[in-house]
Structure formats: C-alpha cells, structure tokens
Write a structure and sequence with these properties.
137 residues; 4 strands; alpha/beta
Length: 137
C-alpha cells in the first residue's frame, strides 16, 4: 500500500508538540516500509518548515539535522513527471476548490495514483473528500 504525504502531516514527526496519534501512526507506517509518494516540491516545503522553526528558536540545529537525516530512511518516491503534466492536473483543482498550487499538487497526485492522502490541512481535506480521494488523516 502507498499514500501521498502532505508536509502538514509529516512535520509533526519533528514537532512533537504537534504530533497526534494519527501522525504517529503515519510515521510508524513509513518506518515499516510503506511507500510514500510526494510531489516534487515536498522536499523544499519540508526544508522550509524546519529551517523556519529553527530560526524562531523552536528547533535546535541537531534536531533539524536528525529529522532531515531520518527522512531518506523511508520509502519516499518523489513524483518525477514533467512539470507540464503535473501542472495540468493540479490547475483544475486550484480553480475548482480554491486550493494553493502546493496543495493541489498533493491532491492531483493522489487522484492520479488512486491512493489515499495524508494531510492535516482542512481545505485540502475538504477538497479530497469532494474529489473522492480517501483521507489517511
């Protein structure tokens, strides 16, 4: 089994005060070898989240390093389709559900692969439900 993982559902693996039983279960699924699929912008979104938190004093550098070092241990596949293909799928979703381009990319990927989506973002969750995409969180 595989699922699409939104950054909002992965960052709590680093921010323990944001962790929930659901995000802990996602991490356990990842640790067990379940495939995670992410859009091409996911690594930058993750990096931005942890470095912004470090600048604000919420994380120290060793915690950032440990989190980023652990991610490659999971079976994470980055969508490598040509940009134009990724955009065409997501563009319609941005218009229909008033999603950001970032969020539409997650939803479009889950739709295309016919797999579930793990997100903590309520607007993205609502759009996924409307599109018939199963939610993991």
């Amino acid at each position: 089994m595989a699922f699409v993982l939104d950054a909002s559902a992965a960052l709590p693996w680093c921010f323990r005060d944001e962790a929930t039983p659901e995000t802990d279960l996602l991490q356990a699924r990842a640790a067990s070898g379940e495939r995670i699929v992410v859009p091409a912008h996911w690594p930058a979104e993750i990096l931005s989240g942890v470095t912004r938190a470090a600048r604000r004093g919420r994380l120290d550098d060793p915690s950032v390093d440990a989190f980023l070092d652990a991610l490659p241990l999971y079976d994470i596949m980055v969508d490598a389709r040509p940009m134009a293909e990724q955009w065409s799928d997501a563009l319609q979703l941005t218009r229909l559900h008033r999603l950001s381009g970032y969020d539409a990319m997650y939803l479009a990927l889950a739709q295309r692969l016919n797999i579930g989506l793990a997100t903590l973002d309520s607007r993205l969750s609502d759009a996924a439900t409307a599109e018939g995409v199963p939610l993991i969180v």
